[in-house]
Batch of 2 targets.
Target 1
Amino acid sequence: QSVLTQPPSASGTPGQRVTISCSGSSPNIGSNTVNWYQQLPGTAPKLVIYSNNQRPSGVPDRFSGSKSGTSASLAISGLQSEDEGDYYCAAWDDSLNGRVFGGGTKLTVL
Amino acid sequence: QVQLQQSGPGLVKPSQTLSLTCAISGDSVSSKSAAWNWIRQSPSRGLEWLGRTYYRSKWYNNYAVSVKSRITINPDTSKNQFSLQLNSVTPEDTAVYYCAGEGSGETLDPWGQGTLVTVSS
């Protein structure tokens, strides 16, 4: 069971907006920034959002992130078939003195 | 551009030691603004952070509680790489193992290509 909680699945049609949630607690999301990773089939995870709401160079502006209290969310607008994959949130946990991940959300583009 | 290249065996016998190496290009293992991580992924455990090493005038390590008694992550400055050793492995340690660099904002980027390690006799 993961320290950060994500819904196991999400879906949307092309062009739609989808939101993926990530719930934590005070020592992790409540005290530290959240990063989001995209994992396409057969590949290593790739950073898509850092420091709660920042996009690395090369990540489309269709991807956005937010954080409030002990929860965070990733939004993907203008959904495309190439967005289909698994998405993970992550944060440092001060009580565990280690990095924790969410269980991952499988995004399906219908 | 930083790149990471993993190497090591894909099959380890139960009770033995899992050893992997991650070679760094485009940065230094001794960088005072980076950290070097190991993460694993399995269907039963998802993504699991294992630990990291970093240099800030001296070397530091952080390890996940779940493997703390069995894990060692070491830098090798002569070869600009870092390694993972996990002792006393069981079939539950079967997973894809990744190395990853860590920059500002505790971001894991880039990642190595991943190595599937199977623990079996």
Target 2
Amino acid sequence: DADVTQTPRNRITKTGKRIMLECSQTKGHDRMYWYRQDPGLGLRLIYYSFDVKDINKGEISDGYSVSRQAQAKFSLSLESAIPNQTALYFCATRSQAGNTGELFFGEGSRLTVL
Amino acid sequence: DQQVKQNSPSLSVQEGRISILNCDYTNSMFDYFLWYKKYPAEGPTFLISISSIKDKNEDGRFTVFLNKSAKHLSLHIVPSQPGDSAVYFCAAIHFLNTGFQKLVFGTGTRLLVSP
């Protein structure tokens, strides 16, 4: 089983719909992240959380919200999806003890907004 | 403002030869540099890293070189194998005083190793 699990893996939705992407991890890490990947743009940080009570915006947080329901769970919501949010979304985790920046990624959630 | 750049979107190499993937950065405050490898339908996985105080780090077939004066790093894969075919992301990390580690990714280079 994967240490970082994302659901759904693929989702097609319509403009204006609310969508939630979920992430759970069994690594025991305190830090969790949401990235999106777009062709030619690499991975860009949407939100990050250092623990359950700590939520921070990344570089492209507009149009997104997150919830850290427990140390192991971090969900990403699009309240009203728009086509330019079509992308591949990755959840990642990292241990506070790590000092090299190594992230552990989930397998990704491909979202298409029509 | 793309602080980490991978100017080659793709690279093709024959099996057994050397693959050299390049990465340039603009922020001299970066403390660590990392390479991630990504196969289709999978998340990126960590490959190798290097501290900004070093100029070389080697792990088996993979070696990362850092040239701080040129703000350039490269990943060498020797010998290249078909299983190395993947997208490689360069990333750089800056340790901020707040404790947050700002991690910036490049745009990726797709490596194809042909038999």
